[in-house]
Prior knowledge:
heterodimer; A: alpha/beta; Rossmann fold; six-stranded mixed β-sheet; four-stranded antiparallel β-sheet; globular; B: mainly alpha; MetI-like fold; 11 helices; 80% helix; 0% strand; binds adenosine-5'-diphosphate; binds magnesium ion
Amino acid sequence: MVLMKSKELAMPKSPETGPARPLTGAHVAVFGLSHSYRKADGRVLENIDFEINQGEVVALLGRSGCGKSTLLHMLAGLTKPSEGEVVINGNTVLDPSPKWVMMFQAPSLYPWMTVAQNAALGLKFTRRSDEIATRVPEVLDLVDLGSFADRNAQELSGGQQQRVALARSLAPRPEMLLLDEPFSALDAFTRRSLQQDVRRIAKDLGLTLVIVTHDVGEAVRMADRVLVLRSNPGRIAEDTTIALTDDERSGGSEAFSREHSRLMAVYSQVAGIGDAPTENDFTQI
Amino acid sequence: MTDLSQSLTSVRLGLPSLGRSRSVVNAALGIVLLMALWWLGGWAVSSNPRLFAFSNFAPVPTLSRLWQMIQSGEVITMSVPSLERVGLGLLYAVAIGVPVGILIGRVARVNEIANVPFQFLRMISPLSWMPIAVLAFDTWDGAIVFLISMAAIWPILFSTAAGVRRIDPSWLKVARNLGANPFHTLFVVILPAIAVDVLTGIRLALGVAWVVLVPAEYLGVTSGLGYAINDARDTLDYARLAATVVVIGVIGFSLDALAGQLVKKFNWVRQDGH
Ligand SMILES: Nc1ncnc2c1ncn2[C@@H]1O[C@H](COP(=O)(O)OP(=O)(O)O)[C@@H](O)[C@H]1O
Ligand SMILES: [Mg+2]
């Protein structure tokens, strides 16, 4: 599927290292982050430190309940950490901002609006309504939904709705996308094509991408780097690089299998389970 | 006779395929049944010597009197003040009920505090406020509007609160993330999300308000449908009384149908959606 139709594609691109363009993605630094929802319940996250480079794709891999969503909310400024701080591009994050947009498992579109109206919201909220006429068709083309602009959001399939949510997140030209298991409600084919497209879009735009997942295959397919979390309390147990070219990421190659097995071993050891489930994600292809 | 049975057969044959004409036929049937009952009641009254004085309640005297009242414009002059009072009462009920409903729907604490008092007040018949209303307001009109508001506020308030509680929390999170200020959140997310609930509340409130209106207009005012009923009773003009009852029913029915259309129009849920 060819997704890039806008001017952004015009940037020269080398096959191995991605686009040779000025980096527009956010730089993230997390210092001594701890969080507890209620004091009595103890800490959900404890003493988290890490750094994410501009334009890097990082997966947060961990079992359900280990605090991945909590961590992502704090990166987005939607939840205030109990201790520590998140610093993006040198500034401490205190509030949410359309510069770093979070996406959820449910597309969470506004069902009384059209696809285009949904996609325009970020511009509308930030007083850039004059850009809507040009920018909205651009982002809808980017996610391959150009012809769906005037349809009601409810008339679309789950995968299409998630693409609209992606367009809505991209419209205000963010520096970072924060994805919280965004494809886990989709069927395997749709999930695979969205995984590829989202990575490609992020790379083409130079966006920083953080994706929360409990699926090893998804992490290998999408991420440059994987942070493996341990639970109770949530801590970063491993920080590992996925050294694969974009071609190798589509699966089937020996390199892919090797990275997948390696990460699976790390994850199983950290999570304390014999054999981490992978969901039916075509890892054998 | 063959004509009739033929057309009846064709109607019956048409029923399964034409759902719409079927519902129209059934609605017409309902009206005919109601008229028949009315006619039967009138016939029973006029054939009973002790009730003969009330024979003008029957359809023929009532409807011919109604025709007179329509031609003379009396129907308009008696309805307009009532509609104004109901409209004003509903307006106050919306102005108070919607914001308070949003507040108790959004803030759990406020809901916990307000729940018992509101449920308590809701169960009091609005008409029992009558003596207090008469004391508290300088004009009869003011008292009537107050009574209507007291009746109308609860369905609006509770329906609004229920709608707010059903708002998907991620809609609010997405809006906040995309840079919405509280004004945006209210007008772009919350109000469109609950529009159907508010309108459904208004529709219920309209029904209650219309019911409360007539007894409320028995109060000192000298205009409106309730007054017209009272006046017709005092002057023993039973055809006029019955005609006014018909007017009340027709207007109430029309207002409800109108509100129903509005609810439909603002309902964003697609039955065939995913
Ligand atoms: N709003 C909340 N209030 C209280 N506890 C919460 C809340 N959100 C999450 N938790 C708890 O925090 C822990 C981590 O949750 P979460 O961040 O959602 O994990 P994950 O996304 O990795 O599944 C869980 O034990 C969960 O029950
Ligand atoms: Mg989660």
